[in-house]
Specification:
- The complex is a heterodimer of chains A (193) and B (406).
- Chain A is mostly helical and 193 residues long.
- Helix content of chain A is 36%, strand content 7%.
- Chain A folds into two domains: 80 residues, no CATH class; 68 residues, Alpha-Beta Plaits.
- Chain A is built from eight helices and four strands, in the order ααααααβαββαβ.
- In chain A, helix 4 packs antiparallel against helix 5.
- Chain A is extended, with a radius of gyration of 23 Å.
- The N and C termini of chain A lie close together (9 Å).
- Chain B is of the alpha/beta class and 406 residues long.
- Chain B has 14 helices and 15 strands.
- In chain B, helix 13 links the parallel strand 14 and strand 15.
- Chain B is globular.
- The relative contact order of chain B is 0.11.
- The chains are: A mainly alpha (193), B alpha/beta (406).
- The interface between A and B is medium-sized, with 20 and 22 residues.
């Protein structure tokens, strides 16, 4: 539902939490084979083809046989658990040509240069997170280790002197969680579209 | 024979491996690096017997490759875009040495602005250098063209270097089904390189690439390169016949798609020819006699084949995925020159599309076909058209706003 609303999708939405499956079955959120498995199911590839493909591709880069097997198992699990929906094919609508004649603009506009300052904040990398750090001020001693260790300067200080995360840009590296000496910084799975 | 899903880069690496190349100097550049990484792994694993050297720049790399070729070794290298231009003077030098080096170029739009996606300004910049040029539409064609390239340029009637060209991303990083022949079959097609004109032997010292003074002396050497390049047209046809005998796949200097009774013909090259063919199919469904001519061998320029394919058509639209700033489409000029003296020459239109990998949408193809029809009706042709859509212009407006411009 969140996906439909956020991205204005009118069609039916099927979801599968491959991040969770990857964490459960592989131990880390690396889900390229799982995503490939879902795609394989949707385009009606056979299970044997998927197995052969995962084995072939991974054997070239993964030396740990056990990890390779886990990937095969996780892929096949995703392949079988997803239920694609039949959609009715519609008529192809040809959009007309919208070709324009490009007007001339002087180099003040048309040179590949950026004049506006401070537009880096527009690029928000917070949607890269798998886990988000969460704060518990009861145990926090305000030692500022986390602030110092954050590689992206995403931990700020509130008016009470406690640290808090800029969730727009926190990439979820969890260095802060690891460095917290009182272990009061926790982490939760991000489950958003 | 079984087909495997390979990217264009890995298909290229297979072509080089099957050609049993002796020496590969390298320098990385997006989007070709996977070619030389794949070769490096095979050599390191011991499945490919070859000398592999990392150089400090493409300029050094092309020098090393050409020099190795001049000692009689079968050499290979690969580059793209900025890399090709970094070694640019050496292209002319190596070609002038008359050595059969095979180099793969993976296209990428030239800086500035910097980009990663493909267009053909890089490879076409080298069109005057003396390097032959084969342009590929599919990953299979890339592998096959490398094998054909060695056979072609090592022929004593040719002995010029060659670029085998493929589009970055659309071919280099896209998997397509490719038949990889076994090396025994390749050996039937591609004999050992045994030069009689350029080699390195203590018992037979020679000086290569000498200085000349005097215009007529210099001209002799350049004219001979041109004559050899033109000879390569006939040698290429022989190589194509041999290739089909051994591998069962048929290639020529050009490829015609729905061309037989076509009145309106698009001219394209490389991977975007595929979307051109799809546009031709859609136009045919609407009752238009459309066709597409894909140019494959660009140097030497197959003038007679192109004339034969285009004469008598109502209108021809050259879609250049390149631009000569201040003039227009490069291939358009070459085709215009080729058709100029034809008695029944078609109306010739010029379009620029696909720069930096810009998509050419179905709507833009409709625009092109409509311009061709209008041209035939009015007997007037507009100047070179720069393809761009309203949606793209609006997107650009948004980016300009963010950048603080306009």
């Amino acid at each position: 539902m969140e996906a439909s609303a956020k991205y204005k999708i009118t069609a039916r939405v099927i979801t599968l939490d491959i991040t969770k499956i990857s964490l459960d079955m592989l131990g880390s959120p690396i889900f390229s084979t799982l995503a490939g498995a879902v795609a394989s199911r949707i385009v009606d590839l056979k299970e044997d083809s998927l197995r052969a493909a995962v084995e072939k591709e991974l054997s070239e880069i993964v030396t740990d046989r056990g990890l390779l097997e886990k990937n095969v198992d996780a892929s096949l699990y995703c392949f079988n658990v997803i239920t694609p929906v039949e959609i009715k094919t519609a008529e192809v609508i040809q959009k007309g040509s919208s070709v324009i004649t490009m007007p001339f603009e002087t180099a003040e506009v048309s040179s590949p240069a950026i004049i506006a300052t401070g537009n880096t904040p527009l690029r928000m990398t917070g949607n890269w997170r798998v886990f988000r750090p969460v704060w518990n001020y009861d145990g926090c001693t305000r030692c500022m280790n986390c602030v110092a260790r954050c590689p992206d300067a995403c931990i700020l200080i509130n008016e009470d002197g406690f640290p808090y995360t800029d969730y727009n840009n926190c990439k979820g590296c969890l260095i802060c969680v690891e460095e917290c000496p009182t272990k009061t910084l926790g982490m939760v799975r991000e489950v958003h579209a | 024979m079984e087909k495997v899903m390979l990217t264009g880069n890995v298909a290229a690496a297979w072509g080089v491996r099957l050609a049993e190349v002796d020496f590969i100097p390298v320098f990385p550049v997006t989007p070709q690096t996977e070619i030389v990484e794949t070769l490096a792994k095979w050599i390191s694993d011991g499945v490919m017997d070859c000398r592999f050297v990392t150089m400090d720049s493409e300029h050094s790399m092309i020098t090393a490759a050409g020099t190795a070729s001049a000692t009689g070794a079968r050499a290979f290298t690969a580059t793209s875009s900025q890399g090709l231009l970094d070694g640019f003077e050496m292209l002319y030098t190596v070609a002038g040495w008359r050595v059969p080096l095979v180099m793969v170029n993976v296209t990428r739009g030239l800086s500035s602005p910097i980009t990663l996606e493909p267009d053909h300004n890089d490879v076409l910049a080298a069109r005057d250098s003396g390097f032959l040029q084969i342009h590929c539409e599919t990953c299979q064609e890339v592998l096959d063209s490398i094998l054909m390239a060695y056979r072609l340029v090592e022929d004593e009637r040719v002995l010029l270097p060659i670029i085998v060209n493929m589009d970055g991303f659309y071919l280099s990083f896209t998997r397509e089904p490719v038949e990889v022949p076994d090396v025994e079959r390749v050996r039937r097609f591609l004999p050992l390189y045994q030069p009689r004109h350029a080699f390195f032997k203590a018992s037979q010292p020679m000086a290569q690439g000498v200085i000349v003074l005097g215009g007529s002396v210099y001209s002799y050497f350049k004219y001979q390169m041109h004559l050899a390049s033109q000879k390569a047209l006939e040698v290429y046809k022989e190589v194509c016949v041999e290739f089909e005998k051994v591998f069962g796949r048929n290639y020529d200097t050009i490829e015609g798609f729905m061309l037989d009774d076509a009145e309106y013909v698009l001219v394209m090259t490389n991977s975007f020819s595929t979307i051109g063919k799809a546009a031709v199919k859609r136009a045919r469904e609407k009752g238009m006699k459309a066709g597409l001519l894909r140019l494959k061998l660009l140097r030497p320029f197959p003038e007679e084949d192109i004339k034969g394919a285009l004469k008598g058509r109502r209108a021809v639209a050259v879609i250049d995925q390149n631009i000569s700033i201040g003039e227009g489409g490069i291939l358009h000029s070459e085709i215009a020159s080729c058709l100029y003296n034809l008695k029944h020459r078609p109306l010739l239109l010029s379009f620029i599309g696909g720069l930096g990998g810009k998509n050419i949408s179905p709507g833009e193809f409709v625009f092109i076909f409509n311009k061709m029809i209008k041209g035939v009706d009015t007997e007037e042709v507009e100047r070179c058209q720069l393809l761009y859509t309203e949606e793209e212009w609006n997107e650009m407006a948004g980016l300009k706003r963010i950048a603080g411009k306009g």
